[in-house]
Amino acid sequence: MKIPGPVAKRLALYHRCVTSMLSDGKDITSSHELGERLILKPSQIRKDLSYFGEFGKRGTGYDLQGLKSSLETVLSINKSWRVGIVGAGNIGMALANHREFFQEGYEVVALFDRNKS
């Protein structure tokens, strides 16, 4: 199934919002609440998520932990990615040593730079 580009971009926003809500101690949310936080129509959120199956229950809402897990599967961020960084200067080294980079599933396996030092 071909997913429209705008939908794919919004999925990352949904994941970020759901993660934030879980950090705030929430367990359940609605498309209305997600819409308010993301300045989107609840119907748009429901339509976007429907591309990937059923996530919520009418009248109950979305289980945030389940939705987060499903979004991570769809976005392929629930697995490790081996990456190489081109440019081992200040920015490259900062990325290679950035804790959240690793926490998001990126494993830096190589650094490349044209300078030999």
Could you write a compact summary of the structure shown?
By secondary structure, this protein is an alpha+beta fold. Helix content is 51%, strand content 17%. It has a three-stranded antiparallel sheet with strand order 1-3-2.
Choose one word for the global shape. Answer: elongated
N→C terminal distance: 47 Å
In terms of DSSP E residues, the strand content is 15-25%
Global mean pLDDT: 88
CATH classification class of the largest domain:
Mainly Alpha
| Named CATH topology of the largest domain | Arc Repressor Mutant, subunit A
Radius of gyration, whole Å: 18 Å
Query: What is the name of the CATH architecture of the largest domain?
Result: Orthogonal Bundle
Query: What is the H/E order?
Result: HEHHEEHEHHE
Could you give me the name of the CATH homologous superfamily of the largest domain?
Winged helix-like DNA-binding domain superfamily/Winged helix DNA-binding domain
As residue ranges, the low-confidence spans are: none
The tally of strands reads 5
Number of spatially distinct domains: 2
Structural class: alpha+beta
Q: Helicity range of the residues?
A: 40-55%
**What's the number of helices?**
6
Protein name: Redox-sensing transcriptional repressor Rex
GO biological process, one term: negative regulation of DNA-templated transcription
Pfam families: Put_DNA-bind_N (PF06971)
Domain Rex DNA-binding C-terminal: 2-50
